[in-house]
């Protein structure tokens, strides 16, 4: 059992919190209120960032002390939304939210994952007709192993998980968010994910 704090209790955070708790972990889900987030992060071994990506860096930098030594699982994408509310551009072109977080929080082990799919797939990958891919990006191998185990608890088979390497590789998966509005406009909000077929 892992003690987990999920920051952000909207559709993404709420979905992850329920599924992780159902897998037997001790989970606290909190909204963006700083005091609650600090208390939850302080008590956790693993912290999940499910806050809106455009404001995540400022929000999490304020928790530097609470996040020291912790694993930070970043599932958010930092985007500039278009008039229809869908992602239109990246907040950190040539970089990524995960890289910005790792640079700002050097004593925290950041792992990027689950950001290349609609949120229902995060906790129910087997419901898709084709096996999806969950990518891992991070500089700490042990942290990635911990996150890999959590993904397994969420229903991800080992062969569906691809370790891309260091945190710099997160800029590739974060850029994939630019596919999303076009897919949604063409086929609606039907759950989908990026998949590497071999």
Number of domains: 1
User: Largest sheet at a glance?
Assistant: 7 strands, mixed
**Percent in strands:** 15-25%
In CATH, what is the class?
Alpha Beta
The assigned CATH architecture is 3-Layer(aba) Sandwich
Gross morphology: globular
Task: Give the strand order, joined by hyphens, for the main sheet.
Answer: 2-1-3-4-7-8-9
Q: What structural class do the secondary elements suggest?
A: alpha/beta
Low-pLDDT runs of 5+ residues are none
Name the helicity range.
Answer: 25-40%
Number of helices: 9
Gyration radius from CA atoms, angstroms: 15 Å
- Quick one: CATH superfamily? NAD(P)-binding Rossmann-like Domain
Span between N and C termini? 34 Å
Q: Give me the CATH fold name.
A: Rossmann fold
- Summed over residues and divided by their number, the pLDDT gives a mean of 95
Q: Give, in order, the helices and strands.
A: EHEHEHHEEEHEHEHEHH
Total number of beta strands: 9
How are the secondary structure elements laid out?
Blueprint: E1 3-7, H1 11-22, E2 26-30, H2 34-43, E3 46-49, H3 53-61, H4 64-67, E4 71-74, E5 79-81, E6 87-90, H5 97-104, E7 109-112, H6 119-122, E8 134-138, H7 141-153, E9 161-165, H8 170-175, H9 180-187
Parallel strand pairs: 1-2, 1-3, 3-4, 4-7, 8-9
Antiparallel strand pairs: 5-6, 7-8
């Amino acid at each position: 059992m892992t003690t987990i704090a999920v920051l952000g209790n909207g559709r993404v955070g709420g979905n992850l919190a329920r599924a992780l708790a159902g897998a037997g972990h001790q989970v606290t889900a909190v909204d963006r209120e700083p005091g609650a987030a600090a208390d939850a992060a302080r008590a956790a071994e693993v912290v999940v960032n499910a806050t809106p990506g455009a404001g995540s860096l400022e929000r999490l930098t304020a928790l530097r002390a609470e996040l020291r030594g912790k694993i930070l699982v970043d599932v958010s994408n930092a985007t500039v939304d278009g008039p229809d509310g869908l992602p239109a551009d990246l907040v950190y072109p040539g970089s990524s939210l995960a890289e910005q977080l790792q640079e700002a929080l050097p004593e925290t082990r950041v792992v990027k994952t689950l950001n290349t799919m609609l949120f229902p797939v995060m906790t129910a990958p087997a419901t898709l007709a084709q096996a999806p891919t969950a990518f891992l990006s991070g500089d700490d191998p042990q942290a990635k192993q911990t996150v890999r185990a959590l993904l397994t608890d969420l229903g991800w088979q080992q062969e569906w998980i691809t370790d891309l390497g260091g945190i710099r590789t997160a800029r590739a998966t974060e850029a994939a968010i630019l596919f999303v509005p076009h897919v949604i406009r063409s086929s609606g909000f039907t759950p989908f994910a990026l998949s590497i077929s071999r």
